[in-house]
Every structure is written in structure tokens, then in C-alpha cells.
Amino acid sequence: MAARLASGVPARIVTGADDICAGLCPPAERHCELESASARDARALSGASEILGRPLGEGDEVRLDRDYLSTMRAAFRDDPARGRTPCGDCPWFDVCTDIAANGFAGARL
Ligand code: SF4
């Protein structure tokens, strides 16, 4: 999946389980469909829209190209008020903070 996205295949914005989750988790085990995850996703979408300067919504497609990743990573690392709007209560907060602090080294995209 990461290789396909890196090659320029656009990612489509969805609500609930994406193609990865849907293929791995039976419906009853999909934490991505819990209210807390939905609220986090909505904050992420709002933050991404603000950073990119254009509205994004379900069904829209984005190419995760070099410019996109550079813009989003800079906001994530250097402008947490905009770049980390969904992250406050996320259990992965420290992991993602460390990845950003290390320059996203080893990230597949
Ligand atoms: S901490 Fe990481 S996994 Fe959690 S919402 Fe932020 S970017 Fe996503």
C-alpha cells in the first residue's frame, strides 16, 4: 500500500474503516469506527484542509507526493497548533512525536 501511494496512486478520503482496516478487522473489532476515532478523523481532516488551504471532504483524493508530504510534515513538526489538531488524546502521541523529531527517518512514505 505504501509503495502504491508513493508511486502516485491517489488516496481517497473515507469515513470509518479504510481499505487497510476493512481487510484486516471484522466489523465488530474496528476501533476506527468508534466515536472517539471518528472525532479524531474529523479534526485531522479539518487540520489538513487548513494546512493545504483548500477544503477536503469524504470522497476527495489527494496525492501523497513530495510537496504534500513536505508541507504536512513541516506543519506536524513545527506548527503543532495546526499540524497536530487530532493528536491530543491519541495513544500513539509519543511514538509520532519521536518519529517527527527523528526527521521521519524510516517512514515508508
Ligand atoms: S498522534 Fe500520530 S497516530 Fe495519533 S492522531 Fe496524531 S498523527 Fe495520528
Low-confidence stretches: none
The bound ligands are: iron/sulfur cluster
How would a crystallographer describe the biggest sheet?
Answer: 2 strands, antiparallel
Give a count of the beta strands, DSSP E runs of length 2 or more.
Answer: 2
Q: Can you tell me the number of structural domains?
A: 1
Indicate the percent of residues in helices.
40-55%
Structural class: mainly alpha
Radius of gyration: 14 Å
Strand content: under 5%
Number of helical regions: 6
* Largest sheet: spatial strand order: 1-2
Order of helices and strands: HEHHEHHH
Shape: globular
Protein name: DUF1284 domain-containing protein
Organism: Antarcticirhabdus aurantiaca
Descriptive report:
- A two-stranded antiparallel sheet has the order 1-2.
- It is mainly α and 109 residues long.
- The radius of gyration is 14 Å and the shape is globular.
- It has helices at residues 2-6, 19-24, 35-52, 66-78, 80-83, 93-101, and strands at residues 11-12, 61-62.
- It has one domain (2-101).
- The mean pLDDT is 91.
- The structure holds iron/sulfur cluster (SF4).
- Iron/sulfur cluster binds next to helix 6.
- Iron/sulfur cluster is lined by residues 40, 84, 86-87, 90, 92-93, 96.
